[in-house]
Design a protein that fits this description.
With 234 residues, the chain is of the alpha+beta class. It has helices at 15-24, 32-36, 42-45, 70-80, 88-112, 125-153, 165-180, 182-188, 193-204, 206-212; strands spanning 3-6, 29-31, 59-62, 65-68. A four-stranded mixed sheet has the order 2-1-3-4.
Length: 234
Amino acid sequence: MPYELYYWTGIQGRGEFVRLALEDARAEYIDVAREEGDDVMTPWLEGKHEGAVPFAPPFLKSGRLVIAQVANILQYLGPRLDLVPDSESRRVQAHQIELTITDLVAEAHDSHHPVGMGLYYEDQKPEAKRRAAEFRNERMPKYLGYLEHCIERGGGRHALREHSYVDLSMFQLVAALNYAYPKAMARLGKKLPLLTAVHDRVAQRPNIAAYLASPRRLAFNTNGVFRHYPELDG
């Protein structure tokens, strides 16, 4: 049975981290909401189906299992898609790094929505400008420097000494931050040669390159988690 991925239509968002793993492994999957619309997720989120109730998309249906949260989904998929090393210590390390990436994604979102998700960006622009400055100058360097160190400890080419879902998530993170904060990333890039190289190598992987050139890869936009507002990219 193919995997069933549930995520909002029209944006890459958090679902893209899962989608990249499925695409890289050429796994058979259905992007359910893209075929049936966002309303198809409502019964799942309201607990009207059997099994675990996800809090929010993305979530993955694999047989009878319903798995939510990006890091949790990738921890499940990694061994099944041959996207994580065999050793328990490396799998724990992969999950640890992925959880850190998840934290950075949340902070990236909050840099343009620091007051509340129920408000439009235009309703919180002064607060967003202040939050984005801290994100650019303090948080991004700290997180990305940590990922650079992970690659260095992993031998210089991969986070875990071999290709894994963590490399795919690093690719997506760099691509998303390049879109949202191009000026800040241009300044930081000189200090992140290994992370930049991982991004470039992942983009050249045959299955990923084919996916990026296909209509399945949506463009970044100002409706998703990562948004480009020039006034925030000081």
